Write the structure tokens for this entry.
Amino acid sequence: MNDRILTALEFHKIVEQLNNQAETSLGKDLVKQIRPSVSLKTVIHLQKETDEAVQVIRLNQAVPLGGISDIRTSLKRSVIGGVLTTNECLDVANTIYGGRQVKSFIEKLEEPFPILEELVERITPLRDLEQQIKSCIDDHGHVMDSASGKLRGIRSSIRTFESRVREKLDNVTKTKSNMLSDSIITIRNDRYVLPVKQEYRTSIGGIVHDQSASGQTLFMEPRAVVDLNNQLQEATLKEKQEIERILRELSEHIALEEAFLMENIGVLAQIDFMFARAKLAREMKAAMPKMNDQGFIMMKQARHPLIPEDEVVPNDIEIGKDYTSIVITGPNTGGKTVTLKMVGLCTLMAQSGLQIPALDGCELAVFEHVFADIGDEQSIEQNLSTFSSHMTNIVSILKEVDHRTLVLFDELGAGTDPQEGAALAMSILDEVMEKDARVIATTHYPELKAYGYNRDKVVNASVEFNVETLQPTYRLLIGVPGRSNAFEISKRLGLSDKVINRAKSHIGVDSTSVENMISSLEKAQIDAEKEYEEAHRILEQSEILRHEIDKAWKELDSKKENIYKKAEEKAEKALIKAREEAEEIVAEIRQMKTDSALKEHEWIAAKKMLSEAQPNLSNKDKNKEEPSTAEKKELQPGDDIKLLTINQKGTVLEKVSETEYLVQVGIMKVKVKRKDLQLLSGQKQVKEKPLATVKGSNYHVRPELDLRGERYEEALIRLEKYLDDALLAGYAKVSIIHGKGTGALKKGVQQFVKNHPRIASSRTGSMGEGGSGVTILELR
């Protein structure tokens, strides 16, 4: 693309807007170099880059580009042995840090961004170099005392010398203040001096470094501080030498990493450039175009990028498929040139990797050449008329035009005799069409209205004009040629009907018929567009409704899955709990089998019952019915029941609480919830002794348990086992001997007793029972 075309289409104004979006000088340099590419592969990649940055911005994310500087000049100086300044070194450190921040930012994004991720992989962190610089230079660009041990010592001596010099000078200002113009200590030629009155020069003595404008005040260095000032100067010189040594060492280290640093800033410049394009797209409310190399352009509601959004009129335009040329006819000031420039400028933007101000789904072509003949080309210097200048430009265009060319002609054939100009315009269009180029031309010649109807690959177009307001609407009407509207405008401006009718009589019948046909076509086009817009609006509403229904359906599916998952987790927990309880019961039964004369068939029946003790939760909610009157009825001791959780029959022994009962199932006594019990028909009489005791021939349990000397945990385990044995033996009262000691064992026993469901009461033993060293338990 030559610069003349970029200037004619005002591409430089887009570049200015893009430059304002870049955050670093590195990015701004790339913006200045932007040019439309003629490679389809390159353009597609550029568009993908911009789109990735747009997606990041849509996530309300801002890439951190602060602190990044253009350090390329400093790097070149360091490589050739130059010593960098403190600020240059600090810029290197800040740029290293900024690059690492950008790398971390991209890597932490939740969604995949392959182009950005590939770019930041090339960034080398260089933490050691950054730390080395930051340990020597503070944020204000000053070399710190900690940069080296030698520098710390030198600065300590400088502070000492300065203190001693000031001390001596302070003494002079106090004792000889009458000889001084002002009792202050100042500096001249990097040495501490006093402002001495001229007449006391010999009294103070020393070296004169400066004098006031009037000559009445001399800035003198008293003899008493000359040696100290000399020592201070020497120390200051050593400080400068040490600082230079430190900076030289840092510069050498920077030079060693020059290749990595250059790669880092190259990547950072590219990222800034990408996000500048994305921010411009957001500002323009632009969309990513699909690119092709077939010369096809299709844009919906496209807007001129340089016209404010509240003023621009969006238009649909398509070329390259059913027709390769568009001839826009009609009067001047109708917006034809704006449409022409909009197509050309959007093409240049797309080929530069910029998104275009149009609706999603737009498509543009990659052209090798974009030619434009726009505006007043009159050249006084070359002694060329407007027509000659236009024709010179057109001649050069026709030499280079081919199938990968977009040509834009504004007012083709203007500046000469209308009849000859129209004939020349049609001939030029024919020539360009023969080379299969894409052409958009504007003209006010009425002869070209019929041109579109006589060519297969040409379509007429016009810009709508509102006769009521006498203003153009700037809406492009494809398929409808323009008309002058001269009679309607003249009539509204006050020209008499007599003059207008006389003018109409001078127009041939054919011209009148054509104008009437155009008017009819224009009306039909406008009506069709309104119907299309209404249909499109209804379609958009339907799409929104469909998306909402899809979203609700997915949410319902998600909730259903969560409910199933929670139900499965609940069932799993219930199953684990049931198994744990079953294992505990098995352990008790085994103990009972060991300690009692339990019959073998009872043992087998108990094991079978436990193996079936698994909760059935799969259809619990589906098959759940309202409990019957019998199920709601309060149970009485002796009632026959069915334990639903294990599907076994049993007998109620007693009511433990409002919701729990103690029941006998086979050889087991278990505490269960009322909702897990089903009352069987009929009731049994309450047994005189519902508590069954199973004893073997050698079974014996003492009425007291001695825990003295036991460890705390072991004592509680023995106590729990003993109470089970005592309950099976049928004891109503037992004694627990825990002793006095520290009282910890007694406290543990009492705490255990409070939580045991089969202990009716407890008390401390009397004097005859062992006193406070014994706890008496009443069993149920």
The chain is about 50% helix and 15% strand. Residues 398 and 431 are 8 Å apart (CA to CA).
